[in-house]
YhfH family protein
Amino acid sequence: MLMSPVQFFRNLPKKQCVVCKQDMVEQADCYTNKCEKCNTIN
């Protein structure tokens, strides 16, 4: 039996920062892999 799309997305693990490994608060249009604290754009 196929899983509904809603169940599929609810079961995905939380996205984690690649630097500090903390869970990230995702936004719909966010493709970054670093949290705000670790994302240092100079």
Notes: The chain has one helix and no strands. The chain has a mean pLDDT of 83.
